[in-house]
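Notebook entry, structure prediction.
Reason for the run: the old model in the group folder had no record of what sequence produced it. Starting over properly, with the input documented here first.
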Amino acid sequence: MKIKKKIMGSLLATVTAATLALAGCSSSSSSSTSSEKDEITLYTIQSTNPNFKNWLNAAEKATGLKINVVAEPTDSDTRQQKITTMLSTQDSSADIIEINDEMATSFKSSGWLEPLQDTVLTQDIRSQFAEGYMKDMLTSTKGDIIGVPSYQGFLALWVDQKKLDAAGMKTIETKEDFIKFAKAATKNGEYGYGGSWEKTYVFNEIASFVNLFGGDYFDWTNPNTKEAVKFMYDMANTWKVTPVDQIADKYEQMNQKFNDGKYGMVFMWGTGDDYKKANRYGEDQIHIINTPQFEKRTIFTDSWSYVLNSASKNKPAAEKFLKYVASKDGELQGWKDFSRYPARADAANDPSVNSDVKDVYTQIQKTNEVRGRPMLPQTMEFITAIGSLFQDYIQDKITLDDFCKKAQEAVKQYK
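New structure, fully documented this time:
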């Protein structure tokens, strides 16, 4: 009996030791799993930026995460196709993905992206971002907010100060000022207004004027929407302050003509890099001004945004990353390393943001309704359809009523 008890005791000790060993392994495994959950994969367009490593180190230090990086394709069509496939097939290989406005429009109501309003973009954080942009570009049809904007860049009015001086004007504050300057600067083969009216680009300007007139880009029965497009027609055909043949021009051609002194003012994105390279930038040359007030004072911003793949297996860690990039420090790091003008109002007002456009950007933020561009899920098809109709209207191939009727059909088709 004593021998049996001894054997049983030995067995019990062995089992206990084995159990403890397994428990130790389990604890180690649990620790390993926990560690894995503090690791995410970021799918980004910024990895080729020379300052990316510095930005990444700052993000990892601030969040305590290990961030694996995969570069997005540089070709826009390939990039959109790859991200669409990833999200639609519930591929979890990327947790955080950087997307542009076109992709945001296509994906925001798909269910492929995790809602962020309860975890990352709570009301106190949202209040720092442009309400109109957040609503237009990053809010689903169900009201879910799906992305964190990484910057803001206005489609603003730029003027040639020398031409403004020659017209005897100090500023362009109203629609009447806009028309007066456009007419005064049109002479000797030069025009008061220059546009990028190629069929896939003109959408930006049409939508800008529609907003200025208080219209609705998705409602072509709205009298204010019609008036905006007629205004553009009048600039080209009635007042002749802008050339019809710019229907072939993209931003590259428009900017070159602006630099060459062919135009008095243009709507353009960014902070003036093309004008700086041409030595045409400055308060006494080409510079940005606040948007004139027509019916409203309103402006578009664009952005790339960080979104959370709903198939992610590392959501708590991914949310930690998103909270960082949505924070003031995160936005300021984007400015420091990528020269991305902060989308957060408090970050944009920080003394470390010392951009040439800071004063006017601040003025724009305070006085304009900042919006996202009106896009539909079939984005490029919709943009091209409206652009083609606009070109036909400008060339007198169709009437204003025809244009509006067919534009409304396009809205219905691509919604």
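Summary: The CA atoms of residues 46 and 52 lie 7 Å apart.
The old model has been moved to the deprecated folder.
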